[in-house]
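Example 3.2
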Amino acid sequence: MTTFGQRRPSRANVRRGLLAAAALAASLLVAPSPAAQAATTLLSQGKPATASSTENGGTVATAAVDGNPTTRWSSQWSDPQWLRVDLGTSATISQVVLQWESAYAKSFQIQVSADGNAWTSIYSTTTGPGGTQTLNVSGTGRYVRMYGTQRANGYGYSLFEFQVYGDNGSTPPTSGYVLANPQVTGVTPSTYNPPHAYFHEFQANCAFSHDKPDDPIVFPGLAGASHMHTFMGNRTTNAASTISSLQAGTSTCTAPDDKSGYWMPTMYNGNTVVTPVGPQVIYYKTGVNDYTSVRPFPVGLRFVVGSPTATADQFMYGSVEGWECGESYHNADFPSYCPTNSQVNVRYQAPSCWNGLYLDTPDHKSHMAYPVNLVCPASHPIALPMLEFKMAFPVNGDMSQVRLSSGRGYSFHYDFFNAWDPATQAALVNHCIVGGLQCNARGYDETQPGRGAALGTNYRLPA
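Structure, written as tokens:
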């Protein structure tokens, strides 16, 4: 319902700003008790959702329960409005997490219902702050809704995610879930404001290894089931890859003990494959303000960043500058022309907050989340390194025939399967990210030579 003279700020620009700020800006390990496991079960994701209204066809109710932080529900610009999710069966509700867009509720209730008609309030406020709200509640019902009675501004109500946690009495699902061992619980997202450090990063410089129509995360064990991927890092990555096979492999990365698998859709110019030349830059950064809270990736963690079915706006959510070449920036799709002797580049950032429970989930995303206002959400409280792919493809001139194996430029995405030697990764994370340095692949900051390097001249841990 945008009218002339009432122009809303771009969500993509707002999000890119937060991600850029994040780029500049080891706790209790226990096995969870059965009760704690039940309390952290996400019940709402992918369930049917309805709303009192929608702002437009792109902001439907189900977008708030799809686990995708780039999509959102938004209502018409009036009071009251509501969003409800059908959990499918009665459940004991213990927590609700609301991830608001800039259009949020000042006054609202969280309500539960057995039949979708009679509602009981389990939370109420008239001073809602917006942002991410984690509400510890107590109630029982099949249906849960946010009932908004006063908007914070002239727009409607808008939620990136509406997450309901609790126990529905069923056995937790196992298909597609890979349990962390040990699981990490009892962590609170850090709000500590550490001393300013302009950089807190190191590089993994990994060259092209091979192209293959495989994806061991999305299509494990199914050779040829995927679109073509360009693989970097581990030379053995294929459909049958496991953590054991990756650890037994070798790597194209400058640090040979980074045996992780990194892959992305293959680029074509017409029918000719465009292969990245030389080591590509994969940054390991902080995505949160408290860079001292960042931990190494757990062995075997894997996830997908972006989506081959993303829209242009969804692609720009995780992008730093979009596709770029020459003086052309902020492109969701490939520029129409790139100057001679230039190349087309893309930088794409990954979510960096982990729920501590799973190394993988059925959608390969739900165990990870982006920080909100530079702090990890309560549902994903553990800060891990933020990966940023910085890929350069040697193609220029007329770009009209340039495409990805997954589609247009905004279908760019990438996969990560962690197979670092744990001690090597920990040394780099602690020295460079936690230590507030701008490191190369050896863990050395040339501007602060007195701080030394994390690795030896052979890019391995000193003996």
